[in-house]
UniProtKB/TrEMBL annotation, chain A:
Organism: Streptomyces tsukubensis (strain DSM 42081 / NBRC 108919 / NRRL 18488 / 9993)
Record-given protein name: ABC transporter permease
A GO biological process held by the record: glycine betaine transport
Xref: Pfam families: BPD_transp_1
CDD domains per record: TM_PBP2
PANTHER family: GLYCINE BETAINE/L-PROLINE TRANSPORT SYSTEM PERMEASE PROTEIN PROW, POSSIBLE OSMOPROTECTANT (GLYCINE BETAINE_CARNITINE_CHOLINE_L-PROLINE) TRANSPORT INTEGRAL MEMBRANE PROTEIN ABC TRANSPORTER PROZ
Protein family: Belongs to the binding-protein-dependent transport system permease family.
Subcellular location: Cell membrane; Membrane
InterPro entries cross-referenced by the UniProt entry: ABC_transp_perm/SBD, MetI-like, MetI-like_sf
Membrane topology: Multi-pass membrane protein
Record flagged with keyword Transmembrane: yes
Keyword vocabulary terms for this entry: Membrane, Transmembrane, Transmembrane helix, Transport
Gene Ontology CC: plasma membrane
From TrEMBL, chain B:
Keywords: Membrane, Transmembrane, Transmembrane helix, Transport
Family: Belongs to the binding-protein-dependent transport system permease family.
Any one of the GO BP annotations: glycine betaine transport
Compartments where located: Cell membrane; Membrane
Membrane-topology descriptor: Multi-pass membrane protein
Protein name: ABC transporter permease
PROSITE patterns given in the database record: ABC_TM1 (PS50928)
Length: 225, 235
């Protein structure tokens, strides 16, 4: 309990929030990094998954990529990139490693969502004379949306969690508070940093769950218009 | 003739000196270090996953039998899974100190979510008719659980076990921050000394171990459930 109260006083001390390397700066870095990586991963994964899901091809590929993604330690990818020529480009290695890590869950969930659309519904839409792209945008995408959003939520939470690893390789973000705590042998600071990351991850999870509840309802209304 | 030319008295011009990514000399000179790291990696993974199974089965059974328990059990394991690995190790630091137990405790908490969810999904998928038939044959609750429900939940449980094991093998590397990261130690040290061959070799070994473990568990699953049609489980 002693460590916890010390961690609490570390967290609530105003000095630790301001200035260079303060909590405010690290929190901003962490959020920016996560958002950039999430947007990039979505831009890469979702179009591919939607087209493959629409065509009904590449399912084995999507599953295999997802499984391989789990087996490759993000930390190893990050360090490999750091030591390669890419390593000269500031946050470049971190962003690449995190995007590689976030693509698999997005890809699988979106693909599974697209394939999960009732085949009768698809056949009916085709019978009404919908073209491929109309079918994709007007029928399959809205129906697959819940699962696609689940994929986005999983990716977002995992990104918040994994962005901490950037600090091990000298990058920014909340992980920096933890690694600095380890270097100073200051357990209260380590615990305080961990609490911050965990709180942010849970917050993102909560926001995403709320978003998932709102968006599909909107999609359904759009269909009835 | 371009190529091999060494000045007299210069250091040996091998791949270690040139700091190349792929280096046979690294493998032969550091064999023992690599073996120790692989062994530590395997031990940490095996102990954590085994402990997680021991904890997950009763939790899943409890969530299945007592309906009020399902919500809290799932919520708790989900929250545990959301906490970042580096943060998890850090949060447990006051309890375990800088030790292998710290890494193991963190990994157990991670594997728990995947296992509980999959075992529970497997138990819930047992058809009611099957349970009634077993009850009709005079099976008590314990015998029903041990000889009917758990074996039928095995394919889904094994799917969870495979994901948990592969994730654990990759997460062990983060344990490097407290010095118990198996191959992660070599990656971490290699990063600080800019030792390319060490980083690449350790990373590749991590992936090889993960793939090998996945295939072994798949084989075990097929042997243990000869009746199943070999489709994957939930999640």
């Amino acid at each position: 309990m002693n460590t916890l109260s010390q961690a609490w006083s570390w967290l609530t001390s105003a000095d630790n929030w301001s200035g260079d390397g303060g909590i405010t700066q690290r929190l901003t870095e962490h959020i920016v990094l996560t958002v950039v990586c999430l947007v990039l991963s979505c831009l890469i994964a979702l179009p591919v998954a939607l087209v493959l899901g629409h065509l009904g091809r590449g399912g084995a590929l999507a599953v295999n990529i997802a499984n391989a993604g789990r087996a490759v330690p993000t930390f190893a990818v990050l360090v490999l990139l750091l030591l390669s020529p890419v390593g000269n480009f500031g946050e470049g290695p971190t962003v690449i490693a995190l995007v590689l890590f976030a693509v698999p869950p997005l890809l699988t969930n979106a693909y599974v969502g697209m394939r999960g659309v009732d085949r009768d519904v698809v056949a009916a839409a085709r019978g009404m004379g919908m073209t491929g792209s109309q079918l994709l945008r007007g029928v399959e995408l809205p129906l697959a949306l819940p699962l696609i959003l689940t994929g986005v939520r999983i990716a977002a939470v995992q990104l918040v969690a994994t962005a901490t690893i950037a600090a091990l390789a000298g990058g920014g973000g909340l992980g920096r508070i933890i690694t600095a705590g380890f270097n100073l042998a200051s357990t209260p600071q380590v615990v305080a940093g961990a609490v911050l990351v965990a709180a942010l991850a849970l917050l993102v999870e909560g926001v995403c769950v709320l978003g998932e509840r709102l968006v599909p309802a909107g999609a359904r209304q759009a269909e009835h218009r | 003739m371009p190529g091999k030319w060494t000045a007299p008295g210069a250091p040996p011009d091998d791949c270690l000196a040139r700091n190349e990514w792929i280096c046979g000399a690294y493998l032969s000179t550091r064999r023992e270090i690599l073996q120790d790291a692989v062994l530590q990696h395997l031990q940490l993974t095996a102990v954590s996953v085994a402990l997680a199974v021991v904890v997950a089965v009763p939790l899943a059974v409890a969530a299945r039998t007592a309906r009020w328990a399902a919500g809290p059990v799932l919520a708790l394991t989900t929250i545990l899974y959301t906490i970042p690995s580096l943060a998890m190790f850090s949060l447990l630091l006051p309890v375990y100190g800088l030790s292998a137990s710290l890494v193991i405790a963190g990994l157990v908490l991670y594997s728990l979510t995947l296992l509980v969810r999959n075992i529970l999904a497997g138990l819930r998928a047992v058809p009611e008719e099957t349970r009634q038939a077993a009850r009709g044959l005079g099976y008590g609750p314990l015998r029903l659980l041990l000889t009917v429900e758990l074996p039928l939940a095995l394919p889904a449980a094994m799917a969870g076990l495979r994901i948990a094991t592969v994730s654990a093998i990759s997460l062990v590397t983060i344990g490097a921050i407290v010095g118990y990261g198996g191959l992660g130690n070599l990656i971490y040290a290699g990063m600080n000394t800019y030792f390319k061959a060490q980083v690449l070799t350790a990373s590749v070994l991590c992936v090889v171990i993960a793939v090998a473990a996945d295939l072994l568990l798949l084989l075990a699953q097929r042997l243990a459930t000869p009746w199943a049609k070999h489709q994957g489980g939930a999640e």
